[in-house]
Amino acid sequence: MAQDRSVAEPLWAIAIWALVIFFVVNVIATIAAVVVSSLGTRWFGAWLPAGFTTRWYISAWAEFQLHDVLVVTFQVVGAVVLFSGLIGVPAAYALARRNFPAKQFVIVLFLLPMMIPPITFGVPLATVLYQAHLGGSLSGVILANLVPTVPFVVLVMIPFIEQIDPRIEAAARVFGAGTGRLFLHVLVPLLTPGILAALLLVLVRTIAMFELTFFTAGPDSQTLVVALYYAVYAAGVRANQSIDAMAVVYMATTLVWLLIALKFVDPTQIVTRVKRDAR
User: Distance between alpha carbon 106 and the CA centroid of its chain, in Å?
Assistant: First the structure.
């Protein structure tokens, strides 16, 4: 029995590593194919294009109005990050420091927009926003994206707040600090790493959010991911290289912010905390 186990364990390890390597190779190959296509002149039936050029990026910039799309994207992302922080951090403080009968139920409510697919609540949410004359506008896109990002900030910030000794807050109140001064001058400096980590992840999440933005965006409020979808599926003949160039811009934008976010937070810690709160 022990011998069978000693033989099975290396086989399992080899199988797992083989699957990991297979997955990584496929991801790298897919990304490389898009990048090479965005730089190729013509690519038919060969391992590499006939030649390389950067003109497709210039073409995509003009054809898809990438300047305006990027401006809208960063406006939406900036507003979502700002409001998520202003709403989420105080809410996280209330949940971390206060006990009340329905606390676990409230935490579950915060978990729902993160646990269920956005498309399940995106359609009714978009209906409400259009009835309120906010659908198709920049404000509607921002409000729709706040639905999952505010709970995300709350759940990320709760463990950071719980690590702060309540006696520090009590000492600040003894020396005359009110709630506002306590929050701004004592808690915010201590919570800066957590706030920065949460907001950076919100930024990456908002850039990549498709469903909610797609349902609520209009012609002048499309973010980069929605504009990329329309570029692929809209009627008309477009060069594949231009679409691939647009996809590379999207991937590069998301990747840069993701790498910055990973410098400040370990995603496995967030997943562990969310599962523990869900119980």
Answer: 23
> For all residues of the chain together, what is the average pLDDT?
83
What pTM does this model have? 0.78
Tens digits of per-residue pLDDT, 14-40? 888 899 999 999 989 888 888 888 888
The answer to whether residue 278 scores a pLDDT higher than 50 is no
In Å, how far are 78, 80, 145, 189 from 209, measured between CA atoms? 14, 12, 8, 30
pLDDT value of residue 236? 62
